Automatic annotation (TrEMBL):
Limits of the Aminotransferase-like plant mobile domain: 1-235
One GO BP: meristem maintenance
Protein name: Aminotransferase-like plant mobile domain-containing protein
Pfam families assigned to the protein according to its UniProt record, in alphabetical order: PMD (PF10536)
Domain of life: Eukaryota
Residue ranges the record marks as coiled coil: none
InterPro entries xref list: AminoTfrase-like_pln_mobile, MAIN-like
Originating organism: Linum tenue
Length: 258
């Protein structure tokens, strides 16, 4: 479960020694935040995989794949309607046994196909709130803003950058927190992010380290992908709007129906 599902690395059947530390006191296992730890490890693995010299990706790819299926219906398995899961079933079980989309059989062009498909997405192609119209009302800690950790791995978590996933209009977010040290060379082996342990205190002080969403933004009124008037200009100035460089400018950021 830990080494082959939640905290997967590239060693195949081996498990990082640090995982065993969490098993010393079996009676405390249910007190750990396994979800945030899994997400922190996945964030770190995605950061390493983004380096030019990377040759693969680790982390809980089951989580990543199911997240893609939930938010991007166009990438779901073809001709498949996911069933409703019971209250005690894993949400990811909706996709058990389903093959990947069969759009591209030739692996030599598959990557370019999906990159182009991403560039052609419009806001209406995204299912912004697949889990709940107001997910923070069900899981309050989803509005926590601060550091999430897995052992010595720390990553910043900031829901203010994705308010539309909570059913609210997206506003220009505040500047991101900065780590104590960040080395991101082309070779993923030298990828280092260090965050002071003092940041960990935020986890136990939720009320003072969460996005108070009703004060920060307003629920969307017309479209689930509503933004403030200044957000798209900020987004274009601060983001890579395209995966492929030869596909023109960011002309699909606004739905053509608007």
């Amino acid at each position: 479960m830990l080494g082959s599902t939640l905290f997967v690395d590239k060693s195949r059947d081996r498990v990082r020694p640090v995982v065993n530390l969490f098993l010393d006191e079996l009676e405390e296992i249910d007190q750990y935040s396994w979800a945030s730890g899994t997400l922190a490890w996945l964030y770190r693995c995605l950061g390493q995989a983004s380096r030019a010299g990377a040759r693969g990706v680790a982390g809980c790819l089951t989580l990543l794949q199911c997240w893609i299926y939930e938010y991007f219906p166009g990438f779901r398995p073809s001709h498949f309607e996911p069933p409703v899961v019971g209250p005690y079933e894993a949400w990811a079980s909706r996709w058990i046994g389903q093959p990947a989309t069969g759009s591209v059989a030739d692996p030599s062009v598959r990557l370019a196909f999906y990159r182009r498909a991403l560039d052609r997405l419009t806001p209406s192609d995204v299912f912004w709130t697949p889990f709940h119209q107001r997910p923070h009302q069900v899981v309050r800690r989803s509005l926590y803003t601060g550091v999430i950790r897995f052992a010595d791995i720390g990553e910043f978590y900031d829901p203010a950058r994705c308010l539309r996933q909570f059913g609210y209009r997206q506003m220009v977010p505040p500047p991101p927190s900065r780590p104590q040290r960040a080395d991101r060379p082309e070779a993923p082996g030298g990828y280092v992010i260090r965050i002071p342990e003092s940041f960990d205190a935020a986890w136990d002080a939720l009320l003072s380290h969460m996005v108070h969403i009703d004060m920060y933004s307003q629920p969307w009124r017309t479209y689930p992908y509503e933004t403030t008037v200044d957000y798209l200009d900020w987004f274009v100035a601060h983001s890579h709007c395209r995966v492929l460089r030869d596909d023109g400018d960011a002309d699909r950021l606004v739905d053509p129906q608007r």
